[in-house]
Amino acid sequence: MRLGAIEAGGTKFVCGIGTEQGEVIERISIPTTTPEETLEQVIGFFKTREVDALGVGSFGPVDLDHASPTYGYITSTPKRHWNSFNLVGELKKRFSVPIGFDTDVNAAALGESVWGAAKGLDSCLYMTVGTGIGVGAVSEGKLVHGMLHPEMGHILVRRHEEDPFRGSCPFHGDCLEGMAAGPAIEARWGTKGVELAGDSKVWELEAYYLAQALVNYILILSPKKIIIGGGVMKQEQLFPLVREQTVKLLNGYIQHDNLLKTIDQYIVPPGLGDNAGLCGALALAKGL
Amino acid sequence: MRLGAIEAGGTKFVCGIGTEQGEVIERISIPTTTPEETLEQVIGFFKTREVDALGVGSFGPVDLDHASPTYGYITSTPKRHWNSFNLVGELKKRFSVPIGFDTDVNAAALGESVWGAAKGLDSCLYMTVGTGIGVGAVSEGKLVHGMLHPEMGHILVRRHEEDPFRGSCPFHGDCLEGMAAGPAIEARWGTKGVELAGDSKVWELEAYYLAQALVNYILILSPKKIIIGGGVMKQEQLFPLVREQTVKLLNGYIQHDNLLKTIDQYIVPPGLGDNAGLCGALALAKGL
C-alpha cells in the first residue's frame, strides 16, 4: 500500500509518498501562495504518483465535522486567500482515493503515537512551538475533537512578575502563544530566539510559560507522553528547563513515575524529528 | 436489568438501585467514617437487593489502570483511613457481578451524557464546585483517562489584581481549587458563600476564576456541553456571570454558535440535578 501525505502549512505545503510503516519514500516542498497556485503544484505531484489513500494535516482553523456543509474547509484563518477554502473538496475533485483530514498538530500527535516517541501508547500530546503554538492530542486511542478541534496554543498563562511584555496574540494578548511563540520572543527581546541561544534569562522565561501550559495539559488530559517540536524547541537547552518547571509547578500532586522519576523520557522531542508533520499526514492516510 | 450504583464521597456514600433508563428506584446515604464501618453498611444495602451490575464513582485519586496491581484502589488521599484502600477489591469479595469504577466526576460526566444535559452528545465536561473542584470529561464518546485520570480542579489560574487571598490548596496555593472552591470563598471573605448570596463582588470574583478554567477546558478539550454542579453553583446568579466572563476571555477566537449565540444552553446546570453523581454510577454499571 502506498500512502500520500500532505502537510499543509502556512508557509509551505510538504507533500510526500510513504509506506504503512511510516517510511517516507519521496517528498517535495511547495510554497504556500494562493490556493490556486499551491494546489496546482500539489495536484501535479500526486497525479503522476499512484496512492491508495491520502492524509492531509492542515493549518487551521479547519472544519472537521463530517456532518457540516463546510467539512474539509480551512475556515476563519487570517491568512489571505485561504479563508473559507475547500481544501478537501478540491483534492476530491482530482483524486478518487479516501482522504483523511485533520489539523497539522493532531496529525503529528497521531504520527508520533503510531511510529514515533509515543509508539504503542493510547495517549499522547504533541506541541509545536514556532511562529505559533499548536497542540494536538490522542486520548483513549483517538484524536481529540469536540465542538471544534483543540486550540490549546491559546490557553491562559500567568505573566511572570518581571516580564513587562504585553503579549503578541491579536485575540488574547498574553495567552500562551502571545507570550511564548517565536514572534513573542523576538518582540520581547528585540532579536530572534536563534540569536539569543546563550542568554539563559530568555530560556528560563520561555520555560516558565511552556511549563504552565504542560501543567494544565497534564491536569486536563493526563497524556502518557508529551512531545514538543517546532523551531523554538531547536534550542535544546529548553527541555531540561521545561521539565524542571513542570515538576516544580505540579509540586508532587500527580504521583506518577513519569513525573517523579523518568521525566526525561516523558517530556521529549519528536521521535520522528522534522518528519513528525508529514508522517502524521501519512498516519491519517493509514487510518482510513 | 437492575443496576446498582455507589457514589463514594468523602463525607457520604450514596448507594442506589436503578434501571437502564437512569431511573433511581431506591437510595440510601451512609456516612463516610472508616472503610470497615462504611463498607459494612454499603454491603448490607446491596446484599438484600439483587443487581446485574454495579457502578462505583469514587472520590480520588483512584487507580483506574486495569493492568496495575492496585487497580480499584483509592490511592494517595489525605482522607484518614482511606489511603491505599482497595475499594473495588472489597466489593468484589462480596458481589460476583461486573463492577464499573471511575472517578465521581467522570461518572457524573458519563451520566449527563447518557441521560442528562449532554444526552446524545459524544463529548461533554462536568465540573463540580463544592468543598473541592472536580472535573470529568467525555471526549469522542469515551471518558478521558491517560497516565492517570484528569485532575482539572488544580489547573493554574491568574490571580485577580484586586484579590489578595493567597489560596487554600495545600499543593499549589492559588490554583483553581485553591481560589474558587467553597473553602476558598469562606477563607477569603470570612463567611460561608451561602451567607454572601447578595454580595455581587463575591460572585464576580468567583466567576472570574471559574471562567478562566472553562476557557482552558474549551481550548484543550472542546467539549460540546459544559455542565456545572456542586454546592457553590446553588448560587444561580453565578451562571450568567461565568458565561459572560468566558465569552469575554475567549474574545471571539472560537467561532461557534455555542459561544456566540446559545451560550445559555452551552454552560448549564446538571440535567440530572443532585442525582448527577448517583446516575453517573448507574451509567458506569450500564456500560458493562
Summarize the structure.
2 copies of one chain form a homodimer. Chain A is α/β, with parallel strands linked by helices. Chain A is built from 10 helices and 12 strands.
What do you see in this structure?
2 copies of one chain form a homodimer. Chain A is an alpha/beta fold. Chain A has 2 domains: 3-106 and 274-286, ATPase, nucleotide binding domain (Nucleotidyltransferase, domain 5, 2-Layer Sandwich), CATH 3.30.420; 119-269, ATPase, nucleotide binding domain (Nucleotidyltransferase, domain 5). Chain A is 35% helix and 20% strand. The first copy, chain A, contains 10 helices and 12 strands. Chain A has helices spanning 35-47, 87-94, 104-115, 176-180, 182-189, 200-221, 238-250, 257-260, 263-266, 276-286, and strands at 2-8, 12-19, 24-31, 53-58, 73-74, 85-86, 99-103, 124-129, 133-139, 142-143, 226-229, 267-268. In chain A, the strands form 3 sheets. Chain A has a 5-stranded mixed β-sheet with strand order 3-2-1-4-7, sandwiched between helices. In chain A, strands 10-9-8-11-12 form a 5-stranded mixed β-sheet, sandwiched between helices. In chain A, strands 5-6 form a two-stranded antiparallel ribbon. Chain A is globular and about 55 Å long. In chain A, 54% of the residues are buried. The mean pLDDT of chain A is 97. The interface between A and B is large, with 46 and 46 residues. Chains A, B: One of its GO terms (molecular function) is fructokinase activity. Chains A, B: Its EC number is 2.7.1.4. Chains A, B: It catalyses: D-fructose + ATP = D-fructose 6-phosphate + ADP + H(+). Chains A, B: Belongs to the ROK (NagC/XylR) family. Chains A, B: This is fructokinase.
